[in-house]
Structure formats: structure tokens, C-alpha cells
Amino acid sequence: IAHGYQKEIVGIMGENFTFPVQIDQKIVEIIWKKNKHKVAEWEYPNKPTYFGHLGNRSVLMENGSLTIVNLEKDDAGIYELRYWDSVKEHQLNFKLVLDSLPNPEINCSTSDDELVLNCTANFQGSLIYTWKLSNNPHRYQNQELSIPLKNVDITTNATCIIKYSQTERSAEISLIQCLP
């Protein structure tokens, strides 16, 4: 058996989570294990069988992907997917790490000619950052937003939205707070 490397993935508590698996070959049998204990097994052409505490919260799809419904703290761990096509056995390993998405924090600073807003969040996955300004319909996809000082309207609020998977959090600041 060729042992694959272990891919680390971050899941968000309370979300539904699907392991990123896409098997293209014709499969004869699939076994998913968590920390060496069997979670799901599928011997074609029968229906999948589920085991243990994930049994009533997991769904095994025909392409090999396993979905866990409503992630809980205890779902973290090492998951191993083994499957057999008509020729040989394959193995994929995942490390599922759970985290909650925090509220972001906004810092601002001014230079001679611009106001710079920076959005940060302490999170181990890679986030999508979006800024929106209350006086502007346009959204900016960036962790940092620079506004020329001559364009700063002190009545404007800036909102930073962070997104990971299906969950979003946001924070807001009034631009007048940033001015010296």
C-alpha cells in the first residue's frame, strides 16, 4: 500500500463538513476510519454501513467523500480513507482540526495622504477578507484597505467581513475614530 501524506484541514464547529475527496475510478469497497476506529464502510453494490458515534451524523457518498453533520469538538482527529478499485488498495489520511471563527479586529493608521485599515483574526485556516464602506456599494476583497485622506468622509463606517467555509463574522469601525 502506498501511504499517502496526511492533509490537515480546519473545520468550523457547528457546520457540516465534507472531506475533499473525489475518486474517479470504479470502487469496489470503501472504509473510513477515525483514530483507527471504523466510521463507515461501503461494499458495492450494497448500501453503506455506519459505526460508532458518527454513525447518525455522517454520510458517505459514492465518490468516496464523507460528510459529517454539525461538527462537534470530539470530531477532531485523524481520519483515514481506504478504498479498493478493481486493481489495488489506496489510502488517504486527513487530520481534522476544529476551530471557531472569531470576530475580526480592525486597526487603522494614517500616513500623510492616506488612511489604512487593517483587519485581523486569530484563526488557523485561510480566510477571505471583504471590506465594505457605508458610503460605497463596492466591496473590496483584501485584508487591508487604503483610502486617500482627501476622500475620507468622517460620517462613513467601514465593515470588515471574514469568511471561512460557510461561516462569516464581521466588525465595524467609524472612520472618524481613525483620524488623528
From TrEMBL:
Keywords: Glycoprotein, Membrane, Signal. Its main location: membrane. PANTHER family: LYMPHOCYTE FUNCTION-ASSOCIATED ANTIGEN 3 (PTHR12080:SF55), SIGNALING LYMPHOCYTIC ACTIVATION MOLECULE (PTHR12080). GO terms for cellular component: membrane. It is found in: Membrane. InterPro entries: CD2/SLAM_rcpt (IPR015631), Ig-like_dom_sf (IPR036179), Ig-like_fold (IPR013783). This is LFA3 protein.
